[in-house]
Design goal:
mainly alpha; two-stranded parallel sheet
Length: 98
């Protein structure tokens, strides 16, 4: 509840952090507001999904969320690199033996 009483033990726990990253929904800002009451460092709110109707790839959305807090984004499109054993597994896993 916005502006309501806060549990002292939970407040003490969150009050010890220099930085809090909230990765989740908080449309009305209640959770962030309550964290700001006890945390002395910055609170970064990362929204895990684009707004409804926003046509953007999830990767681009998340990179934008981190970029707005000043995190350097050096790779626009992350790539997965498969090892030789990963490639061998992939080639052999779909084959039916019999």
């Amino acid at each position: 509840m916005r502006g309501g009483p806060l549990d002292p033990s939970v407040s003490q726990l969150f009050g010890r952090f220099d930085l809090i990253v909230l990765f989740g929904k908080d449309e009305e800002g209640t959770f962030v507001d309550n964290l700001e009451r006890v945390c002395h460092g910055p609170i970064l709110h990362i929204r895990p999904f684009p707004s409804p109707g926003e046509k953007i790839h999830l990767t681009d959305h998340l990179l934008g969320q981190f970029a707005r807090y000043g995190f350097p984004i050096s790779v626009v499109y992350p790539r997965l690199r498969l090892t030789a054993s990963d490639q061998d597994w992939e080639e052999n896993s779909g084959k039916v033996k019999g």
